[in-house]
Design brief:
Layout (H helix, E strand, L loop, with lengths): L6 E9 L3 H10 L5 E5 L7 H4 L4 E2 L8 H11 L6 H9 L1 H11 L5 E2 L2 E2 L1 E2 L9 E2 L5 H14 L4 E5 L1 E8 L12 E8 L4 E12 L20 H9 L3 E2 L4 E8 L12 H4 L3 E3 L19 H15 L4 E4 L5 H7 L1 H8 L10 E10 L2 E3 L11 E3 L4 E2 L11 H19 L24 H18 L3 E2 L1 H24 L4 H22 L8 E2 L13 E2 L6
Parallel strand pairs: 1-2, 1-11, 2-8, 11-18, 17-19, 20-21
Antiparallel strand pairs: 3-7, 4-5, 6-7, 9-10, 10-11, 12-17, 12-22, 13-16, 14-15, 15-16
């Protein structure tokens, strides 16, 4: 459903169409008009691609205390216990809400089948085969399309949030009252005024050269919230998946850890194994250790990738256990029954984000953040498997509850100024964008990746500041485009990741630095406030 107006009015603007955004839209649809912005097709977000499941207390042998304890251990001493308990206490209701919407979770003997993943002491992962995200996403999309009060704007990208202070009303509370958005189909910026705005834009893994995420994960919400005046927390903690396919035609294809579980070996280009040099568990060491080892080999030898090899196993065993991977890689000319698979680690999940409270409320009135874009305190220094979709659902509900409580008090609807592009022209220098885009992702991968040092981080920061100036000049002089908006956002997020990493003088969770290899006794969050960098 597309609008032809350059000024759109709505009660709630939801920016993002993953599990978090769609859940919030459905929970608010009975109150008034909800507008959902989707950068691509409505299904094209990380939710759709989530293979795992959703962690929740569903079995009689499980308990809230057990799930909380496991999460706190995984978080490396940096989780907010109140946020963890709040999330877990609402987990059962969140799953039942999805079941009521029609999500078909896998069953065994008439009971829902629960699996167990790394870090969990109990079977508590409810799933839909190995494509839980797809089941959740398609169900929520269908439900949203059935709600007459929800307007879906596909192929729209938010440019910036509109706040009272940005409009020059410094005597008023700095409330978020809408957003400028680019209608990609018609190539023009429109203004959306809203009584409440929810950021559900996902993470920022696209800031790295290799990522398991879809193309839309470019940190838009984090950057927009920062520019609007919100603080961010713990952005130095980026989770990397150890084995992503390295192939020029393959985008974001993960090679499951189950391959190593069934005996696949990691090798250098000359065929030598290297994991026994790093850990007694060799290929079966934890994700972070395997990712660090691969990263070290790639940097030490100056190679593009390492190789994952299961070809020593029986071909029929390989085909029956890994049919999807076997077929997929044949398309790229790789027969895993005889060939080793070229792999690199890939940025997978952004554990930090926009600072919010248990109501999903940011530092700015009327602005909420939910899902991977937000920092709730649930993940701490490392995310436990399958807690992320749970966080989307629980905090979508808490945001909806808080908005409902303030619904009557905030009835104002404003006509906002239109986007002014009278001073800009069409660019004839797209090559600058492409070059800057690649340079940013390459330097983040080389200097701010799995293993860091102060020297690498400071080198990265100098380069990022130069890129920011170029991109700012470009943004000021040329019409906005999808690539320009994403690059402008990514360079902001890159700076925030580096500044957070420089603040942490220890190695904890997902942040490993050669200069400070030990863990400090006192665990402190890294909080950046916009005025602190001026």
């Amino acid at each position: 459903m597309h609008s032809n107006k350059s000024q759109i009015q709505t009660d709630v603007l939801v920016i993002g169409s993953g599990a978090a955004g769609l859940s919030a839209a459905l929970r608010l649809s009975h109150l008034g008009k909800v507008t959902v912005l989707s950068k691509a097709e409505i299904t094209e977000g990380s939710t759709f691609y989530a293979q795992g499941g959703i962690a929740a207390v569903l079995h009689k042998n499980d308990s809230v205390d057990s799930h909380v304890a496991d999460t706190l251990i995984a978080g490396g001493g940096l989780c907010d216990e109140k946020a963890v308990r709040f999330t877990v206490e609402h987990s059962t209701d969140a799953i039942h809400w999805l079941i009521d919407r029609g999500v078909a979770f896998s069953k065994q003997d008439q009971e829902y089948h629960l699996t167990r993943e790394g870090g969990h002491s109990q079977r508590r992962i409810i799933h839909s085969d190995d494509a839980t995200g797809k089941a959740v996403s398609t169900t929520l999309v269908a439900a949203v399309k059935n709600e007459t009060s929800i307007e879906i704007l596909e192929h729209y990208i938010a440019v910036d949030l509109i706040t009272e202070h940005k409009l020059g009303n410094d005597d008023r509370e700095n409330r978020c009252i809408g957003a400028y958005v680019l209608n990609l189909a018609q190539d023009r910026v429109e203004t959306i005024s809203a009584r409440f705005v929810i950021l559900a834009t996902g993470g920022a893994s696209k800031v790295y050269l290799y990522t398991s995420n879809p193309d839309v994960a470019s940190g838009d919400g984090i950057a927009m919230a920062w520019r609007a005046g919100c603080s961010v927390t713990n952005l130095e903690f980026n989770q990397f998946h150890p084995t992503c396919l390295y192939h020029p035609e393959a985008r974001s294809f993960l090679i499951t850890e189950a391959l190593r579980g069934e005996g696949a070996l990691l090798r250098r280009p000359n065929g030598e194994r290297f994991m026994p040099d790093y850990d007694d568990r060799a290929e079966l060491a934890s994700r972070d250790i395997v990712a660090q080892a691969i990263d070290h080999e790639i940097k030490k030898l100056g190679i593009d990738c390492v190789y994952l090899d299961i070809s020593h196993k029986d071909p029929e065993f390989i085909k029956s256990h890994f049919p999807t991977i076997y077929k997929k890689l044949l398309n790229y000319g790789i027969d895993i029954t005889v060939d080793a698979i070229p792999v690199v680690p890939a940025a997978h999940y952004t554990c930090g984000g926009v600072t919010v409270d248990l109501n999903s409320q940011t530092d700015i009135a009327g602005l909420y953040a939910i899902g991977e874009v937000a920092y709730t305190g649930l993940h701490g220094a490392n995310r436990m498997a399958s807690n992320s979709l749970l966080e989307c659902l629980v905090f979508a509900q808490s945001a909806a509850n808080n908005i409902e409580q303030h619904w009557q008090a905030n009835q104002g609807q404003r006509i906002l100024p239109c986007w002014d592009e009278s001073q800009v022209t069409n660019s004839d220098e797209e090559v600058i964008l492409n070059h800057n885009w690649h340079e940013l992702r390459q330097l983040m991968w080389n200097y701010v990746g799995i293993v860091r040092s102060d020297k690498r981080l400071e080198r990265a920061l100098r380069r990022i500041e130069l890129l920011q100036q170029e991109i700012h000049d470009y943004y000021a002089n040329f019409k906005v485009s999808n690539d320009l908006i994403e690059l402008r956002n990514l360079v902001v997020v890159a700076e925030l990741i580096v500044r957070c990493a420089l603040e942490r003088k220890e190695s904890r969770g997902l942040h490993f630095t050669l200069d400070y290899p030990l863990v400090l006794d006192n665990a402190v969050e890294t909080v950046l406030k916009p005025n602190s960098l001026i």
